[in-house]
TrEMBL record:
<dbReference type="InterPro" id="IPR029028">
    <property type="entry name" value="Alpha/beta_knot_MTases"/>
</dbReference>
<dbReference type="InterPro" id="IPR029026">
    <property type="entry name" value="tRNA_m1G_MTases_N"/>
</dbReference>
<dbReference type="InterPro" id="IPR023148">
    <property type="entry name" value="tRNA_m1G_MeTrfase_C_sf"/>
</dbReference>
<dbReference type="GO" id="GO:0005829">
    <property type="term" value="C:cytosol"/>
</dbReference>
<keyword id="KW-0808">Transferase</keyword>
<dbReference type="Pfam" id="PF01746">
    <property type="entry name" value="tRNA_m1G_MT"/>
</dbReference>
<dbReference type="GO" id="GO:0052906">
    <property type="term" value="F:tRNA (guanine(37)-N1)-methyltransferase activity"/>
</dbReference>
<feature type="binding site">
    <location>
        <begin position="136"/>
        <end position="141"/>
    </location>
    <ligand>
        <name>S-adenosyl-L-methionine</name>
    </ligand>
</feature>
<comment type="subunit">
    <text>Homodimer.</text>
</comment>
<feature type="domain" description="tRNA methyltransferase TRMD/TRM10-type">
    <location>
        <begin position="1"/>
        <end position="232"/>
    </location>
</feature>
<keyword id="KW-0489">Methyltransferase</keyword>
<comment type="similarity">
    <text>Belongs to the RNA methyltransferase TrmD family.</text>
</comment>
<keyword id="KW-0949">S-adenosyl-L-methionine</keyword>
<dbReference type="InterPro" id="IPR016009">
    <property type="entry name" value="tRNA_MeTrfase_TRMD/TRM10"/>
</dbReference>
<protein>
    <recommendedName>
        <fullName>tRNA (guanine-N(1)-)-methyltransferase</fullName>
        <ecNumber>2.1.1.228</ecNumber>
    </recommendedName>
</protein>
<dbReference type="InterPro" id="IPR002649">
    <property type="entry name" value="tRNA_m1G_MeTrfase_TrmD"/>
</dbReference>
<comment type="function">
    <text>Specifically methylates guanosine-37 in various tRNAs.</text>
</comment>
Amino acid sequence: MRLDVVTIFPEYLEPLNVSLVGKARARGQLDVRIHDLREWAHDKHNTVDDTPYGGGPGMVMKPEPWGEALDEILASGDGEPVIVVPTPSGVPFTQQLAVELSVKPWLVFTPARYEGIDRRVIEEYGDRLDVREVSIGDYVLAGGEAPVLVMVEAVARLLPGVLGNAASHQDDSFAPGAMADLLEGPVYTKPPEWRGRGIPEVLLSGHHGKIARWRRDEAFRRTDRNRPDLIERADPAAFDKHDRAILAALGWSEGDDGRFGRTAEAVEE
Ligand code: ADE
C-alpha cells in the first residue's frame, strides 16, 4: 500500500518510522511518502494560509499550494488514490472505515492546520476522485496530523502480514464477526499471582468452550459499563441464549422493536 501525507509539519509524522508501521515500511509492505506543503508555496515566506472570506477568527489554508501538491502527487503514481481529509466536521473514523481503507492500494492524507482548507480544494478533487472527510472523534485538535497517525496505524495493522498473528484482529473490539458490537474483555498473562491478585480460574481450565463463554460474558459486562449504546444498537439476532441470560442479569430486556434496552430499574441504578 502507498501512503502520501501532505503537511506543514513533516516532523510530526516521525512516529510512522516506529513500531508496527515503521517495520511494515522497512519490510516494503508500506510505501510512506511525507511531503512538505510549503514546497508548493511560492512567495518568500512560503505562505500557505490567509484570512477567511466573510470574516471570523483564524486562518484558512490557501487552495493553490494544495492544488499543486495534489496534482504532482497524483501524477506520480498509477491509478487513483482515495484522498482522506482529516477534519472534525467529517464522518466518524470507525473500524469499518479502517477495514474499507485497508484494501485500497493508495491513500493520500491531507492534514490541515488553522481553520481548515479552502472548500474548493475538496470540491475540485471530490469531482473526480474518492475524497473522504473523516473525524477521529468529537473533539477539536490543533491539526490533522495526529488524526493521520491514528488512521494510518488502524489501517496498517489490518494489512496482510503486518500483525504477527493473523488472528489477532478477529477479536478486536468493533471488528466485524461474532464479537461485533461488543468491547473486548480483560486479558491476563504470567505470573499467575501478582500482588495477591490471581487469574480467573476458568482461564487456567484448558476448557476452550468455557473460556470462550467467559470471554463473551466479560465482553457484555464491559460493554454494559462503558458503551451501553453499542448494546442498544446491536442486532439481537446475534445474541444466543447465554447472551440473553447475561444481558438480563445486567438489567437489559428485549423491547417491542426487538432491540435491547435497559430496564427502568437498571437505568435508575
Ligand atoms: N482536526 C482537528 N480535529 C480533528 C478531529 N477530531 N478529527 C480529524 N481531524 C481533526
